[in-house]
Specification:
This protein is an all-beta fold. Helix content is 0%, strand content 47%. It has no helices and 63 strands. The strands form twelve sheets. Strands 1, 5, 6, 7, 8, 10, 15, 16, 17 and 19 form a ten-stranded mixed sheet that branches. Strands 2-9-18-11-12-13-14 form a seven-stranded antiparallel sheet, with no helix packed on it. A six-stranded mixed sheet has the order 20-21-24-29-26-27, with no helix packed on it.
């Protein structure tokens, strides 16, 4: 069972539908040792806590209840419905839903309506937990239970951390002792959740198949034995899985918390019966209500005949893939066809199979994704270019995917080269397919692309079972239509490759320049990134206790000088002219002093001066400050502590180095990242999203953006007005302002967020029928490409009638930036690469859709001509087509269009020039359609027109090669010397 904490990346992001136990766990029990070899030895355990449910009612000194359907914050504000899992039940503390009957705890799910301040729910049930009453680290947990069957029923017995010591779910861990699917009455699962905070959480586990005549609706004993560094799951005394590989990493950490975190802290028990949710779907007509889960007892034990095992840190060993796996190439690359020489499979229908060996281009029309993939050369190397017609509503609306084999226990490095035409982000990850529930093997890594070709990389540990059908995904949707070039893709096994702890270090996300200053990260010695040295004249040791997580320097002989015993951290990045502050906590067995300093790598330059720190027997916070020279930056400085010249024990903790001054260099920062905020150029630079549960149209009217809403849909994100591709800089203060009104009073939400829905600004505002200005200020914590989104769908003050929202004078700028300069006027339409000397750069092919009918073929450049090889025409004249956008046409100006064209077999071609629209009729023509008769000879063509529409800077020329009456042959068509000149 899952717990999603108060972290929502976006109101439009579904809460983690792939982050639950069961989906992705190993099927069956084929790896089990013979049954007699793993019966439990219960005599090792001594009972320390239990509930036999023999009283007349639930013991409130042992159990408390969760109430409701929503996750709420400390103030009771709703954060996420359905407990983050799309669950449909309302949990009560009523004796109708949880009670004692004949020595058994009964949790009953009923079909009945309940309403609270957040909504109305069709089912009630109960969730009991011991939080605040009983929690424990390690032990044996045994529960005897009988579970209900039926589609959409989700009984679970699980554990959560008492304090969330390592961060939000699932960085602090979750242990699922047992959960089951009501629709799969002979299967139960045990799972652990760990890793980083959602959405970078991970999970591993296995399923257990019960005997055919002894399903979940019969009494079974479910047990977990938890020792340091090992968890073991049992059903009726039979061991069916052991887990000992996991990790935890905090948001602001440089490395993982030391093993066995997060499963080295107190956890409490949870038992519940959910209805609906991602795990087993919603109930159907076959599901019986009321349904109930019965628990005979809950017992918790401690070891009594031996000590708990010592944790053994997992050791990275070479990965051996099975014989039927896709093996690495001779150079170690797990990615085949790095140069895109094999055909790329296009997958555009739900359920359509991927090519299991080579590259796939996946576009998901149900999420609005549309585009094409071509291969181009850049600097002599072949790149896949994704031409994006519609980015869709999700990151995965458009994907480049290749299957590969990943082995359990391996560490992998993913690297690639990429660029776009303008700043934008893409998301890359390694994970499983549908058969394993889309489980993530790597984090969802976001990369900010620029117009310059750059190299990118990330690493991940494969802690799940070996998967010979893993997927490397480049997720290219949901973030604008700028094209993306990707090449030189490599995935290599780097298991066992050491990390250089002394390498130069960028500041952590919280600004701290010191890595592992809390002494709880890295190996089990908890000393990663620190170096300890003792000169011959001295004697001292260093250690970190598991209990206190403090650094202890035990000095037997401190010699006669401070430098004799030294602790240092290398690779600290100090920037010229900035002020810095060092903080730490320290104490000693006896009153004494230690020294600290910031030095150059060779120790010859002292940036801070020698700082003397006075210690007592009390742990106290110490600080000192310094300023870097005006003309010196150092990316490899070192922080040094000197402990010599005295004996005894010294303790350190919470060491931090923060830059306390900041004068941003605006030279490389876009002072006005948002474009066309006054809509003088129509809706150019703006986009929109209207979900299928809503109905709205967006247009420019009298110099304002008009959003005409006839149905708000069911979510705030159901209707959106968006400008993406905004490149913002770290530590810069930005101002957002705009004017807005509505024909009826309503609330909307304005957000600044990245492609992973991380919000840097989120404001709710009330609109009236009077135009009003709204202004907000925020500081960017990171360099990031973001989107401004106006969320206009359903909210707490939802409307029911049709209405219009008007938006104008949108400005996003660096605070105190000088006045925005007007761009220099451009006097030509600006056809790019009309001679095709630069391949197909600047040109896009579109092959149709389910409404126009699908064409088929390829677009390439040969002998400095554009070649459109058509193997199938669609049902309309415009499927397929090739086009170029971004052309400036000025009102009242006269233009001449020229080009040369031919075909291998005579046929017709239509030429259209106009403005692309986001709603029906989809295109405004500036000139009547020109129909050209193509022959086998290359011939010149030309026509003139006067621009009678408003000036527009994103005009489009389209060469239609589809189903044209009396001339629609599927053949090769050639274009050259395309130009548009202003007369």
């Amino acid at each position: 069972m899952k717990k999603t904490l108060a972290i929502l990346l976006s109101t439009m992001m579904m809460l983690p539908g792939t982050s639950f136990a069961g989906n992705g766990v190993e099927q069956g029990n084929e790896n089990a040792v013979p049954k007699q070899d793993f019966k439990q030895n219960k005599s090792e355990w001594s009972l320390v806590w239990s509930d036999e449910f023999n009283g007349p009612e639930i013991d409130r000194s042992k159990w408390t209840h969760d109430i409701g359907n929503w996750i709420v914050d400390e103030d009771g504000n709703g954060i996420a419905p359905g407990w983050g899992n799309n669950e449909k039940e309302y949990y009560t503390d009523s004796s109708e839903n949880a009670f004692i009957d004949d020595g058994k705890l009964v949790i009953k799910a009923k079909q009945e309506q309940v309403t609270d301040e957040f909504g109305t729910y069709d089912y009630t049930s109960a969730k009991l937990k011991t939080k605040g009453l009983f929690s424990k680290t390690y032990g044996r947990y045994e529960i005897k239970a009988k579970l209900p069957t039926g589609k959409g029923l989700w009984p679970a017995i699980w554990m959560l951390p008492e304090e969330d010591k390592y961060g939000s779910w699932a960085a602090s861990g979750e242990i699922d002792i047992m959960e089951s699917w009501g629709s799969r009455p002979h299967t139960v699962a045990g799972t652990i959740h760990y890793g980083e905070g959602w959405p970078n959480n991970k999970y591993t586990g296995k399923e257990f198949e019960l005997p055919e005549n002894r399903g979940i609706d019969k009494w079974h004993t479910y047990a977990l034995e938890w020792e340091p560094g090992e968890l073991r799951w049992y059903v009726d005394g039979e061991l069916y899985q052991t887990q000992n590989k996991w990790y935890s990493k905090g948001t602001d950490n440089a490395a993982n918390f030391s093993y066995p975190a997060p499963f080295d802290q107190e956890f409490y028990l949870v038992m519940n019966l959910a209805v609906g949710g991602w795990f087993d779907g919603d109930p159907d007509e076959t599901t019986e209500f009321p349904s109930q889960m019965e628990v005979d007892y809950v017992r918790v034990y401690d070891l009594k005949k031996r000590e708990y095992r010592e944790p053994v840190e997992p050791v990275a060993e070479p990965v051996e893939l099975p014989a039927d796996a896709k093996q690495p190439l001779e150079d170690g690359n797990l990615i085949y066809d790095q140069n895109y020489e094999e055909p790329i499979t296009v997958v555009d229908e739900p359920g359509e199979a991927l090519n299991s060996t080579y590259w796939n281009f996946v576009k998901l029309p149900e999420f609005g994704g549309d585009g094409s993939l071509t291969v181009e050369e850049i600097e002599g190397k072949r790149f896949a270019k994704t031409n994006i017609t519609n980015a869709g509503s999700q990151l995965y609306s458009l994907q480049m995917i290749q299957n590969l084999s990943l082995g359990n226990g391996g560490k992998y490095k993913v690297s690639f080269d990429a660029k776009s035409t303008d700043p934008r982000s893409i998301m890359v990850k390694a994970g499983a397919g549908a058969s394993r529930g889309w489980v993530k093997y790597s984090n969802e890594e976001s990369f900010k692309l620029t117009s310059e070709l750059q190299s990118y990389e990330f690493t991940f540990d494969m802690l799940n079972e070996t998967d010979i059908a893993s997927r490397l995904e480049f997720n290219l949707g949901g973030n604008g239509t700028n094209p993306v070039w990707i090449g030189n893709v490599r995935v290599v096994d780097i298991t066992g490759t050491p990390v250089d702890p002394d390498a130069p270090k960028q500041p952590l996300p919280d600004g701290n320049h010191v890595y592992n200053g809390t002494f709880d990260q890295g190996g089990m010695d908890r000393l990663m990134f620190w170096n300890f040295s003792v000169e011959d004249a001295a004697a001292a040791t260093v250690s970190v206790s598991e209990e206190t997580r403090e650094l202890r320097v035990a000095i037997e002989d401190g010699a006669k000088y401070p430098e004799a015993v030294q602790l240092d951290q290398q690779g600290i990045y100090l920037v010229k002219g900035n002020d810095y502050k060092v903080t730490l906590k320290a104490r000693a067995d006896e009153t004494r002093t230690i020294q600290a300093a910031l030095l150059s790598k060779d120790g010859m330059v002292n940036y801070s001066g020698i700082k003397t720190i006075n210690l007592t027997s009390n742990m106290e916070e110490k600080t000192f400050e310094f300023t870097m020279p005006e003309d010196v930056s150092d990316s490899e400085a070192q922080l040094v502590f000197n402990f010599g010249d005295a004996d005894g024990d010294v303790y350190l903790d919470d060491v931090a180095l923060l830059k306390t001054s900041n004068i941003p260099d605006y030279g490389n920062i876009d002072l006005y990242p948002l474009k066309n905020g006054d809509f003088a150029d129509g809706l150019n630079s703006w986009g929109n999203y209207v979900h299928n549960d809503a109905a709205a149209s967006i247009s420019e009217e009298n110099g304002e953006a008009k959003v005409a809403i006839t149905n708000e849909g069911n979510e705030t994100w159901s209707v959106q007005f968006i400008q993406g591709g905004l490149s913002l800089a770290k530590e810069v203060v930005y101002e957002l302002s705009f004017e807005a009104r509505s024909t009826v009073e309503r609330d909307i939400e304005a957000t600044i967020e990245n492609a992973q829905y991380t919000r840097f600004l989120s404001e709710n505002l009330q609109l009236s029928d009077q135009m009003k200005q709204y202004s907000y200020e925020f500081t960017m914590p990171v360099d990031e490409t973001v989107s401004l989104k106006m969320l206009l769908g359903k909210n707490a003050s939802s409307l029911v009638e049709a209405h219009d929202v008007f938006i104008d004078n949108v400005v996003l700028k660096v605070k105190d930036a000088p006045s925005q300069q007007e761009p220099e006027p451009v006097s030509t339409p600006g056809i790019d690469n009309g001679t095709f000397s630069d391949g197909t750069n600047g040109w896009t092919a579109w092959w149709g859709d389910q409404w126009s009918g699908y064409g088929a073929g390829t677009m390439t450049a040969e002998n400095e001509e554009l070649k459109v090889a058509i193997s199938q025409v669609g049902g309309q004249s415009y499927a397929p087509q090739v086009f170029q956008k971004g052309l400036l046409f000025e009102n009242g100006a006269s233009y001449t269009v020229t080009f040369e064209a031919r075909a291998d077999v005579p046929r017709k071609m239509n030429v259209n020039i106009g403005k692309e629209l986001s709603t029906d009729p989809w295109f405004t023509p500036y000139v009547p359609t020109q129909t050209i008769n193509l022959t086998t000879d290359m011939k010149p063509f030309s026509f003139n027109f006067v621009m009678n529409e408003a000036t527009y800077a994103d005009g489009k020329i389209v060469f239609e090669l589809g189903n044209i009456l009396d001339g629609n042959t599927a053949t090769n068509v050639y274009l050259d010397n395309v130009s548009i000149t202003k007369n």
